[in-house]
What does this fold into?
Amino acid sequence: MHVDAQVTLTASDPQLVDGFRWAKRQALAYVFTGDPVGDWYEAALPGRAAFCMRDVAHQSGGAQVLGLRRHTHNMLRKFAAAIAASRDWCSYWEIDRHDRPCPIDYTDDSDFWYNLPANFDLLACAYREYLWTGDRRYLDDPVFRAFYARTVGEYIQTWDKDGDGIPEAYPAYGRRGIASYNEAIARPLMGGDLIAAQFGAFRAYAAILDATGDPARAAQMRTQAARLRALYESKWWDERTARFASFRRHDGTFASGYPGITNFFPLYMGLIGDPRKMRAALAAAAQSRTQLNVEDRSYLPLIFFRYGLHDLAYAELKTQMDPGYARRQYPEVSYAAIDSIAAGLMGLDPDATNRTVTTCAGLTAQTGWVELDHVPIFDNRIRVRHLQPRTTSFANLSGPPLRWRAAFAGPVEELLIDGARCVPMQGADAQGQTCAWVELTLGAQTEHTVTALNHGIHHDRFY
It folds into this structure.
């Protein structure tokens, strides 16, 4: 096995450094090549020698940072190519190293395990891979294009029996069509995570259509996404308890409680737009986090970082990397930790459509400084260093010129760019949080440093 995992982390917090080293070592131990399936990494229960759709979609971010884009592309394309009318436009839930549907989950096309959010989750993941890599195969390959179109078309039409535009599941389906990723609850009509995944797929496909010259169809997808958001924020919200329902029963009623992914996946996919309801969902996730299994819990550090809960995110990240954390050897834990450090703590947010990399630090009082070096983005290698209180350095170590958007949380009146004063742009990030930024172009082997001159670090802004 040869993997070009050059990425390294140094920081003022030795626990963070140790945790990153463990996560990198553990994640790379699950990487394989030379099997009939091609390049792949373990993304399922250890010992199955397989990868499943949900785990791959979640692990892909960490895999990209580790230099595994070739592996991820192969795995995603395997799933995309497997979509078939004989399986009601499902793919294979899990594929093993022998390039076959994993026998424990698949008997034949009439009897197999399938969680219905999976097609949508995979579509959103494929677009994220494009944003990080710039690999146009995710936009142009006929296999992917057919998967996207059928996922938002025939797949929904086949599984939506009541005509509301959302797939649902019925008891007679058994394991062949489960309307949630949560496998511990009684089979619901649909889970909140299914709506969130479909929302994420609509938004991703809209962006893909824009990038491939179909703005009219893209607008339709955004309209469908907006409809799902309005539905979720109205019908799934309980004003009496000030929280969202977890799933919908077959009699049409809603079940509350907090069975994990059904409630936090709307945050992960950006489904919730109402700030008050967003804060309530974040509070519920924070309060219930220790009750979750390691698979569900591995999503939380990145979610907390995204929504400005930096202290909570950092504590949760370090807990999950701690040697005493139960089942931390599960592949998803190490991959998600790498992702949470890169996209959360370091705030890396690449956009291949305009070759721009945004950074926005998620530092806490425990991290005086942190540097992530030799990160593969587009066809470049970059280095990012955050320093308290409000300084970020960005280097384009190799590759063509790219744009750096140096962003800082909260209103900022003035920035220093390599010592020269400038007035930043002001606005909001994808989660609606106030931020300021400046954009710079960096050629190869170029580095700039930007400092925010006013306002302290904004921790846990949603609390």
Summary: The domain at 1-32+310-463 is CATH 2.60.420.10 (Maltose phosphorylase, domain 3). The chain has 15 helices and 25 strands. The chain has a mean pLDDT of 95.
